[in-house]
């Protein structure tokens, strides 16, 4: 089955496909290289997500304190 047949693929197949495209766009000479190239990107995204979670927690805490003050 191919993508042209409208077949659904496993998520890991799509992830591999996207990684290969990203790798080719950034570094055409490394298409057959390893996935180590993407580790810094993955770590950066994890760090940003963690920062967003901290920000949301701070906002929730501030809302709770404001609610208590208004009581």
Specify the number of helices. Answer: 2
Mean pLDDT score:
72
Largest sheet report: none
- From the N-terminal CA to the C-terminal CA, the straight-line distance is 63 Å
**Which descriptor suits the 3D outline?**
elongated
- Which series of helices and strands comes N to C? HH
| Unreliable parts | none
Strand percent estimate: under 5%
What do you see in this structure?
This protein folds into two domains: 1-33; 35-71. The protein has helices at 11-26, 39-70. It is elongated. It contains two helices and no strands. It starts with 10 loop residues before the first helix and ends with a helix. The protein is mostly helical.
Quick structural gist:
This protein has helices at 11-26, 39-70. By secondary structure, the protein is mostly helical.
